[in-house]
Amino acid sequence: MVSMKKDWLRWRALATPGREALLIEGRTVSYGELDRLADRQAGGLAAHGIQPGDRVAALMGNSV
């Protein structure tokens, strides 16, 4: 059983890496690409000293 969102994303990326996960402003993002982007963001946070369990805020524009 997949217990966390990050685990689900990794599982989905391994199972169907080329399948469409998101459509952002006309651009398709696959599950594989989304997984790589999430890893890159996690690495960036870690490089700034953020550790698992720390709280962070995200400021993003609205979209549907």
Automatic annotation (TrEMBL):
Residues 10-64 form the AMP-dependent synthetase/ligase domain. It holds the Pfam family AMP-binding. It comes from the Bacteria. This is AMP-binding protein. It comes from Caldilineaceae bacterium SB0675_bin_29.
